[in-house]
Amino acid sequence: MNQQLNSSTPKLNNQQFVDLENKYAARNYHPLDVVLEKGEGIWVYDVEGNKYLDCLSAYSAVNQGHCHPRLVKTAKEQIEKLTLTSRAFRNNQLSLFCKEICELTKYEMVLPMNSGAEAVETAIKAARKWGYTKKGIPENEAEIIVFTGNFHGRTTTIISFSSEEDYKTHFGPFTPGFTLAEYGNIEAAKQAITDKTAAILIEPIQGEAGIIMPPQGYLEDLYNLCKENNILFMSDEIQTGLGRTGRLFASDYENIKPDVTIVGKALSGGFYPVSAMLSNAEILGVFQPGQHGSTFGGNPLGMAVARESLKILVEENLIGNAYENGKYFREKLVAMNSRFVKEVRGRGLLIGVELNEEAKSARPFCEKLQQLGILCKETHYNIIRFAPPLIITKEDIDAAMEKIAKVLA
């Protein structure tokens, strides 16, 4: 049998591509029926040439904008040199990445991985081993406190401690060792602590839950609670970190330095899966050769792209832009005074618009916005998430608000 695959992209219309995906792809997502083929800055284009403002940024992975020229150049140059060595050997890009991200974030050590879920799994393993070897928790009895509404990934261990039943149904049995406490309730966290608690794992702002903000001072109180009880404070900043909220990390708003910060998504500007666990030498030092790893983690292509993505965030002031223009965007949404809007919340350019009972589902609003050239996505049924690339300008926001106002009016 002589079979060949056609690598060219056929000239099909939007619906034909949708039909192909519906026929051949597993339906583990419910995307809007727009088929994209090109991106530039804050804009994306579908296969029929229609232009859209991207207000999702691939769930905050494209903070630097689509196909940022500096990242394109870096990726091309590195692809022509060296892409993968595995960690059986060292590579120059890994060494430089580790130095530069530690200097930027003021952490002592970093362990690079690929996906965000891998970085969360890394943090869980590190916290457990730290609990056994440093805190003296009996072997195989370590507990990690997590919170209602959490979203840290899709692996079997991670969904084991989700409070969302849809993420768990028919995927058991589940990994033990996690205690669920109410998000935003410091008393619930206190009650969850035992002498076997190794760490807490928290999102400083819950993204998938609908841009849920904890009470002011809660993160600091939780951090202090951890210090009082010799517990690791682990912050999942995969969505909120690297400028999205108008600070390098969302935890910076409460002037705390987590023992562990987990990053991903925007770490590579949407070019390549790169994630990392950041911590100190005592915690990351628990890993010995052979105890944890990844074939692709720390590869030269990913590291080169990640290095440039961090430089872009700093040198192009994208963090400050997210703070100023996020505030402007939220003010515009509030001033719209729509009868369908229950609440506008968020920080920086991570914004949630919760709709009231009259509006019912957020899905039709997102579909109407798509027709007007704005791409966003509903979360938790009645919430619209606005998270454009951090390069967006006030003029872009003004133009978008005219269309958003039409839909939400």
TrEMBL record:
Coiled-coil segments: none
Keyword Transferase (UniProt): yes
E.C. no: 2.6.1.13
Listed CDD domains: OAT_like
Needed cofactors: pyridoxal 5'-phosphate
MF annotations from Gene Ontology: identical protein binding; ornithine aminotransferase activity; pyridoxal phosphate binding
RNA-binding in keyword set: no
Name of the top EC class for this enzyme: transferase
Similarity comment text for this entry: Belongs to the class-III pyridoxal-phosphate-dependent aminotransferase family.
NCBIfam families linked to this entry: Orn_aminotrans (TIGR01885)
Name by which UniProt lists this protein: ornithine aminotransferase
The organism of origin for this protein: Uabimicrobium amorphum
